[in-house]
Write a structure and sequence with these properties.
Number of helices: 6
Radius of gyration: 37 Å
Oligomer: single chain
CATH topology of one domain: OB fold (Dihydrolipoamide Acetyltransferase, E2P)
Strand content: 25-35%
Shape: rod-shaped
Largest sheet: 5 strands, mixed, barrel
CATH architecture of one domain: Beta Barrel
């Protein structure tokens, strides 16, 4: 009986039951709605399992959300939509993408019938930004992005198309032996230069150091241009004389 229900709630309702005992002498039949529902659920579960395979696109209802993902009812059996499979962009919590009770379309990426465990993903249903990464972020291009994570080997930066690039520690600054936390903060927008793109490994390497070096060279060039005094020769002086002045000088020479 569902929680909060009383037997009176079943009066006038049509329900599915399974006969579990017949007593002809007492003219009594013992039935179970619970067993009937469990068997019906198991039948639907087996039917669902028979239709599931890697690559299948199925519909389901989000039944429960946890910190690591969402459980989706596919029809008698739950599949796990892990938070890492909810999009190409980093998702901090599953509730940013799905809600309980929401009907969604997902791709099956793993089936373990012994568990059974069904792994689901939204990524195959979304455009893959890595396919155009080499065109979007050519080597040598300067890009802006937002710092999403600071890890021991460097910094992750979310780029405009949603993918994340990595700035290794030695590419964070022109200074040496500095901690990443001293250079950037999570949520900060930074500018970096692309120096390696590998769509197959889904990796883009960026450098803030190269951007800083280019800026330093530019500022030095401007400073040198401002400080340099042009050399003036006699030729430069006489070349600035007007034609009238030159005619007067020539006339004076002829008179002498």
């Amino acid at each position: 009986i569902p929680s909060g229900w009383r037997l009176e709630h079943f009066i006038g309702r049509t329900i599915k039951v399974k006969i579990i005992e017949i007593d002809r002498e007492r003219r009594r039949v013992l039935c179970s709605n619970k067993i009937a529902l469990e068997e019906d659920r198991e039948r639907r579960r087996q039917e669902t399992l028979s239709k599931l395979y890697e690559g299948a696109i199925v519909e389901g209802v989000v039944r429960r959300i946890t910190d690591f993902g969402a459980f989706v009812d596919l029809g008698g059996i739950d599949g796990l939509l892990h938070v890492s499979e909810m999009g190409w962009m980093r998702v901090n919590h599953p509730s940013e993408v799905v809600k309980e009770g929401q009907r969604i379309q997902v791709a099956v990426i793993g089936v373990d019938l012994e568990g059974p465990r069904i792994s689901l993903s939204l990524k195959p249903l979304l455009p893959d930004p890595w396919r155009s990464a080499e065109q979007d972020y050519p080597i040598g291009a300067k890009v802006k992005g937002v710092v999403t994570r600071i890890v021991p080997f460097g910094v992750f930066v979310r780029l405009p198309t949603g993918i994340e690039g990595v700035i290794p520690n030695n590419e964070l600054s022109t200074r040496r032996n500095v901690r990443a936390e001293e250079i950037v903060k999570i949520g900060q927008e930074v500018e970096a230069k692309v120096y390696q793109v590998n769509p197959q490994q889904r990796r883009i390497l960026l450098s803030m150091r190269q951007v800083a070096q280019e800026q330093e060279r530019l500022e030095l060039r401007r400073y040198m241009q401002q400080q340099t005094t042009p050399q003036i020769t006699l030729g430069d002086v006489f070349s600035d004389l007007s034609p009238q002045t030159q005619q007067i000088q020539e006339g004076q020479k002829n008179q002498s």
